[in-house]
Amino acid sequence: MIALERLSKSFNGIKVLDNLDIKFEEKEITVVIGRSGGGKSVMLKHIIGLIKPDSGKVLINDLDINSLKKKELNEIRKKFGMVFQDGALLDSLSVFENVAFPLRQHLKIHENDIKDKVNSILKDVGLEGQEQKMPSEISGGMRKRVGVARALILNPEIMLFDEPTSGLDPIMSDVINNLIIRMHDKFKFTGIIISHDIEAAYKTGDKIAMLYEGKIIEEGASGDFRNSKNPVVKQFVSGSMEGPISI
Ligand SMILES: Nc1ncnc2c1ncn2[C@@H]1O[C@H](COP(=O)(O)OP(=O)(O)O)[C@@H](O)[C@H]1O
Ligand SMILES: [Mg+2]
User: Fold this and answer.
1) What is the per-residue pLDDT across 101-127, written as a single tens digit (0 to 9) for each?
2) Which residue in 13, 195, 197, 227 is deepest, having the highest Cβ count within 10 Å?
């Protein structure tokens, strides 16, 4: 359903993506791992058309999103829910209003229906009773959950998570990873998760792919990935200083 074909992108003469190829299977969760600064967020932003490639294609249901008119692109974007790395909550809005925001923007629905939908999704992510709090009044883990709830509120076919557990302690990270698994079971979206946490990748991913030097150098089912013979993957997975990855 989503494919990146020979995608290349440079910034200031530096190649970040270099003829990258990958397919994301429908209804699966694919975790893309890689080093910080390796181009993971850049790859994700190409998928929703926030960044345009220098060359190559972004195919969503066989449509190249960069050949679409603005209106068509907006239609495609409605299929997506995105959880941003920094949460990207609106600080001046309550938890409730942050989650209601996409509904108010995209759908003309009754206040009562908004209440029902928002309260239901907040319950799903374990934030019942927190509706009236402001983002500054809740913990980092809760803010991530608000971001997940907001991304899910339009029931998207595709969910993109940019480092959903960054900045969280291991216990709260596990809460978020379990939440993603639970929400995937319930809503059956196609999920793409960016992460540098290999254990989380094994736990949440149907498939794992590694981005390195602008390309996908290895991909496979969680179990296969663990046994990769690729020396770069082996070094990354073991977190070792020794190996082909220059530090
Ligand atoms: N809009 C931009 N303009 C210039 N350089 C950028 C831009 N976005 C990302 N980069 C650069 O591209 C590289 C990859 O960034 P990023 O995708 O954010 O890495 P990560 O894998 O940590 O998510 C970095 O060197 C970053 O500085
Ligand atoms: Mg990033």
Assistant:
1) 999 988 888 999 999 999 999 998 889
2) 195
